[in-house]
Amino acid sequence: MKKGTAMDALLAEIERREGDLVSLTQELIRIPTLNPPGLHYRDICDLVGARMKAQGWDVRLIRAEGAIGDSESHPRWNVVCRLEGRGGPGDCVHFNGHHDVVTVGDGWTRDPFGGELAGGRVYGRGACDMKGGIATSIVAAEAFAALTPGFRGAIEISATADEESGGFGGVAYLAEKGFFDPDRVQHVIIPEPLNKDRICLGHRGVWWAEIETKGHIAHGSMPFLGDCAVRHMGAVLDEMARTLFPVLAGRRTDMPVVPEGARSSTMNLNSIHGGEPVQEADYTGLPSACVPDRCILTIDRRFLIEEDIAEVKAEVVAMMERIRAVRPDFRYEIRDLFEVLPTMTAQDAPVVRTVQDAVHRVLGKSAEFVVSPGTYDQKHIDRIGRLRNCIAYGPGILDLAHQPDEWIGVRDMVQSGQVMALALHDLLG
Ligand SMILES: [Zn+2]
């Protein structure tokens, strides 16, 4: 068969499977895999596993035993399905989607776990982020394998836990077990909802830390006998506003981060707490009179590929030292909570070029390259798996993620599935 003809047949085959794609998306949405706490993970893995097994795929159910979040009551289950082509050795293309969804929240007019189909959209929590993406990659891979059983190499589909809470019981665990080693998997596509015409190359870096200012407890009627940690923190906030935030805002990246506002360094003040703990809602008493002896600020610093994490941390330490130089008795501590290095797959990496060509063929326009302001599971594939040929590409509108009445467009899934199938054809055909 001529190449053009084979590609046309593949595009038509995805169209033909639209009904199957919709019903699979609905089935996935109807399993409420809420995280936290991590519900029904085994059920959704069984559903995906049973479907793939029935078509001759090798299916492995893997529990992330001992990973954070894993427990007997809420086990962290993952499923990895693999199909070898009959054409002998070749590359392996892996589609990875997270099967967990975030809390429902208020404001819904549809059943969040009903999977309702209306006006060319499938509704439900996780419809776009990212059960529609998982269904799309499954149907694309099945269609390709049905039409081209003699392909070279292998296809893998995984549905993994806990992306919404860091991915440690999901992709990080699999990466530690070698599932994303570059000699095993050569191309990874994560069908997160980034719009069907955009290719996400990576994400900014993250540093979460706690800054604690220290004081001295005393009776609240005689604050001069103590040392107020909250007032020390006030000095920190003031110094940040004067000397740190303007510098961060002025630091621009060449990474194509969307939205535009995230093309600078940013820092969110995630929480602040000083003094007595907040009491339970049913506590009817008054506070006691104390000078707070500690105050804790949690910072969420997002940094650019042009920045070095050691310098990012040193910049905050230098700011604290400036305060200490002018403020008597200023004592503090900084504790690291979490960090992720920025990552960006090269625009000429094989998986990028392939998907770029496929987008052009299916949608008749050039794909836009983007970088995510926040991280997703690519961080584990990159850092633990050491695999540099990874992108996020999938159907769904990013802004709908985590919103009420979340939906995925059927047309978007079909076209995105066509792009994925063409990418398989190009990489393995
Ligand atoms: Zn997601």
From TrEMBL:
GO terms for biological process: lysine biosynthetic process via diaminopimelate. Keywords: Cobalt, Hydrolase, Metal-binding, Zinc. Residues 202-322 form the Peptidase M20 dimerisation domain. The keyword Ribosomal protein does not apply. Its EC number is 3.5.1.18. It comes from the Bacteria. The keyword Metal-binding applies. It catalyses: N-succinyl-(2S,6S)-2,6-diaminopimelate + H2O = (2S,6S)-2,6-diaminopimelate + succinate. Its cofactor is Co(2+); Zn(2+). Coiled coil: none annotated. InterPro entries: ArgE/DapE, ArgE/DapE_CS, Bact_exopeptidase_dim_dom, Peptidase_M20, Peptidase_M20_dimer, Peptidase_M20A. This is Probable succinyl-diaminopimelate desuccinylase. The lineage of its organism: Bacteria, Pseudomonadati, Pseudomonadota, Alphaproteobacteria, Rhodobacterales. Belongs to the peptidase M20A family. GO terms for molecular function: metal ion binding; succinyl-diaminopimelate desuccinylase activity. Pathway: Amino-acid biosynthesis; L-lysine biosynthesis via DAP pathway; LL-2,6-diaminopimelate from (S)-tetrahydrodipicolinate (succinylase route): step 3/3. It is an enzyme of class 3 (hydrolase).
